[in-house]
């Protein structure tokens, strides 16, 4: 099938590449000319494990191409995916200007039947808005389909190639058949393509992300309580996670959720609800608790360093909002850095993939290390913010030689408490006993 993907970011590039992988002809359109030029040279603009291989293969086999020209890209496409940003607008609602703007441009160009698919996360009623844009600008029949994306950065290729489920919102039989055909290779093991109306589909995505954000936030609150009552959140987590109704996943406490999706989607759902005069109380609490959780580590540090953080030097491991990505959007590390610098501390950070993105955002506000142990040199403490696998079993001897003091503030509970006791650390993690 011939497919156009408009917007070649994390979602668009994974979608385009994975659709090419099963034999479709995919053309990716982006307004960022520099990015398109790089992709044409075979240079992948994001870090996403496993994507490069597929990206190179499909470029080489000429099923995956890139352009800045919308007109040429959509001409032959049967299905046009919109994988455009939907950032929070000033009032917290999703900014639909990218999606509606692209819809208008496409509407002015279409000459024959197309299925236009919103892959972006968009509020309930957006498919109707997109449809109205088409009706206002063209006589050509176009079906507007909602097909929210559930991929997780870091495992996006697997999530796309073997999705737990695909959600498609359409009431058009014609569009449904095309979408069924398109997704058939990805659900061969029997996972469902769930068809529904557009509004339910749009809400499904927000409900999923908001539920997950709530689950994390609930555990963060349990962890905070564990510290007060002298309980161990790891034990509580295992105790509740083995209940099939609760499940083991998404129960790890930390320094608050971040990323390009949870913060904006929770906010947008709360805002959508309020537009219908519904006060979505849980989501308001989730946002409030998450704000507090982002700086819980700094609060702990302020308590520990009674003389203040000014003049101290801290090593910070992990900048990406989660492991296996270079994405730093709404990353808790950025909030922690801001707080520490505000307090007059010096920060030297290490991350396997996200340093360049942070350098662009924060410049020389902090130092950057090429290697995790270099970051530790002469530091008063280590702060762990992202649970990259390589931080799990570090060389503790090297660590101790580099650090000025054996002090760790761990926002991800990476280390065994007994080990920290044995090695003589002050070790402060989330929802567990503080080792002193
Ligand atoms: P992104 O910012 O990484 O990518 C967006 C791309 O669109 C950029 O390359 C940008 O240059 C391009 N663009 C902007 N305006 C354009 C235009 N008019 N024409 C062509 N290209 C244009 O965003 P993303 O993370 O891929 O997210 C896209 C959507 O998918 C959002 O709605 C997001 O909520 C949703 N989503 C994201 C994820 C995720 O993990 N990142 C997961 C599921 C859903």
Automatic annotation (TrEMBL):
Domain of life: Bacteria
Name of the protein: UDP-glucose 6-dehydrogenase
InterPro entries (UniProt xref): 6-PGluconate_DH-like_C_sf, NAD(P)-bd_dom_sf, UDP-Glc/GDP-Man, UDP-Glc/GDP-Man_DH_C, UDP-Glc/GDP-Man_DH_C_sf, UDP-Glc/GDP-Man_DH_dimer, UDP-Glc/GDP-Man_DH_N, UDPglc_DH_bac
UDP-glucose/GDP-mannose dehydrogenase C-terminal domain residues: 315-417
Stated family: Belongs to the UDP-glucose/GDP-mannose dehydrogenase family.
Active site: 261 (nucleophile)
Pathway named in the protein's UniProt entry: Nucleotide-sugar biosynthesis; UDP-alpha-D-glucuronate biosynthesis; UDP-alpha-D-glucuronate from UDP-alpha-D-glucose: step 1/1
Lineage: Bacteria, Pseudomonadati, Bacteroidota, Sphingobacteriia, Sphingobacteriales
Entry EC number(s): 1.1.1.22
Keyword NAD: yes
GO BP annotation list: polysaccharide biosynthetic process; UDP-glucuronate biosynthetic process
Binding site for substrate: 150-153, 205, 250-254, 258, 322
Catalytic activity: UDP-alpha-D-glucose + 2 NAD(+) + H2O = UDP-alpha-D-glucuronate + 2 NADH + 3 H(+)
Binding residue positions for NAD(+): 30, 35, 86, 121, 153, 264, 329
Keywords: NAD, Oxidoreductase
Top class in the EC scheme: oxidoreductase
One Gene Ontology term of the molecular function aspect: NAD binding
């Amino acid at each position: 099938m011939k497919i156009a993907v408009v917007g070649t970011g994390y979602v668009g590039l994974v979608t385009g590449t994975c659709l090419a992988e099963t034999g479709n002809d995919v053309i990716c359109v982006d307004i960022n000319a520099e990015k398109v030029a790089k992709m044409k040279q075979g240079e992948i603009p994001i870090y996403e494990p496993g994507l490069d291989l597929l990206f190179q293969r499909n470029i080489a086999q000429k099923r995956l191409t890139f352009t800045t020209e919308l007109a040429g890209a959509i001409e032959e496409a049967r299905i046009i995916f919109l994988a455009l940003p939907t950032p929070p607008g000033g009032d917290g609602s999703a900014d639909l200007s990218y999606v509606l703007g692209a819809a208008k441009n496409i509407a002015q160009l279409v000459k024959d039947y197309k299925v236009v698919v919103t892959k972006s996360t968009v509020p309930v009623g957006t498919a109707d808005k997109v449809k109205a844009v088409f009706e206002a600008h063209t006589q050509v029949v176009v079906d507007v389909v909602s097909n929210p994306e559930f991929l997780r950065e870091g495992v996006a290729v697997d999530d796309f190639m073997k999705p737990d489920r695909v959600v498609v919102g359409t009431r058009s039989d014609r569009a449904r058949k095309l979408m069924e055909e398109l997704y058939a290779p990805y659900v061969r093991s029997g996972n469902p393509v769930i068809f529904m109306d557009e509004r339910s589909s749009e809400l499904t995505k927000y409900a999923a992300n908001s539920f997950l954000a709530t689950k994390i936030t609930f555990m963060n609150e349990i962890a905070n309580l564990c510290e007060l009552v002298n309980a161990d959140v790891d034990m509580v987590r295992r105790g509740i996670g083995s209940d099939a109704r609760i499940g083991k996943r998404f129960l790890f406490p930390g320094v608050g959720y971040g990323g390009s999706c949870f913060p904006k989607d929770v906010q947008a759902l709360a805002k959508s609800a309020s537009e219908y005069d519904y006060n979505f109380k849980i989501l308001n609490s989730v946002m409030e608790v998450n704000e507090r959780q982002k700086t819980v580590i700094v609060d702990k540090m302020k308590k520990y360093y009674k003389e203040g953080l000014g003049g101290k030097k801290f090593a910070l491991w992990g900048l990406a909002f989660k492991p296996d990505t270079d994405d730093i959007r709404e990353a808790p590390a950025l909030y922690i850095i801001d707080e520490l610098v505000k307090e007059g501390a010096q920060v030297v950070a290490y991350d396997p993939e996200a340093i360049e993105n942070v350098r662009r955002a924060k410049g020389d506000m902090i130092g950057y290390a090429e290697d995790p142990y270099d970051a530790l040199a002469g530091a008063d403490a280590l702060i762990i913010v992202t649970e990259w696998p390589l931080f799990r079993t570090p060389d503790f001897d090297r660590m101790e030689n580099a650090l000025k003091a054996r002090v760790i503030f761990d926002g991800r509970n990476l280390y065994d408490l007994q080990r920290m006791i044995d090695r003589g650390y002050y070790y402060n993690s989330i929802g567990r006993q503080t080792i002193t």
